Amino acid sequence: MASLRVTCVVAVIYMIVAMSAHAPMATPSSSISCGTVAKYISPCYSYLSSGGTPSSSCCSGVKSISNEDKTTADVQATCNCLKYLAGQTSVNANYAASLPSECKVYVPYKISNSTDCDKYVEINVFIS
């Protein structure tokens, strides 16, 4: 019985280490984590795989991501996370790229698994 518990603990630790090795980390000075981005974007998976019209909860998530992107490090961390998620799931590239405009949210990069997130070094602030 004790050996089964040890085996389970080792398996869980191995899974955590393996998952963290592949997931993008937030940059040291960013305030948004990939887990937060994934949570916000999760209502969009139906749209991202099948198209149609993004739900209001999807667009609320996209707006929340945009609102949390306060610094260059935040933008780059979010970009890298979305890039990672786009490469790991069955996302249609065209739907991913059009998501911000469908939700009427400005995002300074294309949501794609081929985006070079390091080149986004400025944040444009628009005053209404």
From TrEMBL:
Stored CDD domains: nsLTP1
Q: Which InterPro entries match?
A: Bifun_inhib/LTP/seed_sf, Bifunc_inhib/LTP/seed_store, Plant_nsLTP
Similarity section: Belongs to the plant LTP family.
Q: Which parts of the sequence belong to the Bifunctional inhibitor/plant lipid transfer protein/seed storage helical domain? A: 34-117
Please explain the role this protein plays, according to its UniProt record: Plant non-specific lipid-transfer proteins transfer phospholipids as well as galactolipids across membranes. May play a role in wax or cutin deposition in the cell walls of expanding epidermal cells and certain secretory tissues.
Which PROSITE patterns does the UniProt record give? PROKAR_LIPOPROTEIN (PS51257)
UniProt keyword annotations, A-Z: Disulfide bond, Lipid-binding, Signal, Transport
Indicate the secretion signal residues.
Answer: 1-22
The molecular function GO annotations come to:
lipid binding
PANTHER family per the UniProt record, alphabetical: NON-SPECIFIC LIPID-TRANSFER PROTEIN 2-RELATED
Q: Which domain of life is it from?
A: Eukaryota
Q: What is the scientific name of the source organism?
A: Flemingia macrophylla
Q: Does the keyword Cell inner membrane apply?
A: no
Q: What is this protein called?
A: Non-specific lipid-transfer protein
